[in-house]
Amino acid sequence: MAKSGHFALLLAFSLSSFAILANLLGHWRNSTKLIAGARNATIGCFACLTIAVTVLWIALVRSDFAVTYVAEHTSRALPLVFKLSALWAGASGSLLLWLWMQTGFIVLVFHKCKDDEGAFSAGARGAANLVSAFFLLVLVFDQNPFAVSTTIRPDGAGLNPMLQHPAMALHAPILLISFATLAVPFAWAFASLKWDAAQGPAPLSRQARNWILPAWLFMTIGIVLRMWWGHEKLGPGGSRAWDPGQNFFLMPWLTATALLFCFRVSKRNPFSANLLFILSLITYSLCILGTFLPRSAPDSGVHAFPESELGKPFLILLIHIWILAAILLWRKYRRLKEQT
């Protein structure tokens, strides 16, 4: 079973990498065949991730302690609800769940392959697939959730008792839904940077705007649930200063609030329209920053990842995102300057 899950991740990585090249070439050559192939590859990547998530969930429920992730986060006596929530109890499981939902949302929104929206969707999928390929690179070669132990334990270590609480069982997936949803305006912003303003407003702006409010609501609920958990487990004051990760999550919440406002007034205020690109990139970047970079608390990040060394790799991802964004912004500025 573990081999099938690992193979699904390898296949998803291959499809995501192919989709990046096909989207870029299809956008450059204006080839509908390449764009359609990239779209199908992204759909195939989502199917592979669905298989991987299903396999890991089955391993957790069956208490397959040959899988290291299962042995480290579950035990035979653990209630079923916490065996299911163990999927996001560790770094690799949370990353897999995030990527699965994010890829599904990208497929749902940017599935166009014809007319002007086809080239725009190709640019958006290319940006999303770049992030997906990096996530999969980490999952396959560094944080493999399907790694098999040489010795099979009679029982697992169990779930951290601090995480066996209804608020924490719900908090992580709700936050991950908001992060995955914010990938839609992030991908839209990248595609918009390559869009020529002389052709009119960027396509799919309404669809991107409609995904901001659910993301903001899910993030708000996730933060409130984490505060409830802090109050229940750590007592009065525990919901405020106990965790630097809590403060990190407030940062994307604030920028998501500003992004929601800018989308609402962008048609009436050209300055707000220009801020959409920057705020979309900042908000998604802060989601990554708040999830994998804080390390000073025993429960930093989305859940308890004290053993994870994902801070540096994801810092590299953020650097690449902003270098690409800076290049696209500079090219967009030059085009606007030439037109005026």
Please describe the topology of this protein.
Blueprint: H1 2-29, H2 32-61, H3 68-73, H4 80-85, H5 91-109, H6 115-141, H7 166-181, H8 183-193, H9 205-210, H10 212-234, H11 244-265, H12 270-292, H13 311-339
Describe the structure.
The protein has 340 residues and is mainly alpha-helical. The chain has one domain. Helix content is 72%, strand content 0%. The chain contains 13 helices and no strands. α8 packs across α12. The protein starts with a helix and ends with a helix. 50% of the residues are buried. About 5% of the residues have low confidence.
Summarize the structure.
With 340 residues, the chain is an all-alpha fold. It contains 13 helices and no strands.
Key traits:
340 residues; mainly alpha; 13 helices
- What proportion strand? under 5%
- List the secondary-structure elements in sequence, H or E: HHHHHHHHHHHHH
What is the residue-averaged pLDDT?
83
Structural class based on helices, strands and sheet pairing: mainly alpha
In total, how many domains does the architecture comprise? 1
Give the termini separation: 60 Å
Biggest beta sheet summary:
none
Unreliably modeled segments:
238-242, 295-307
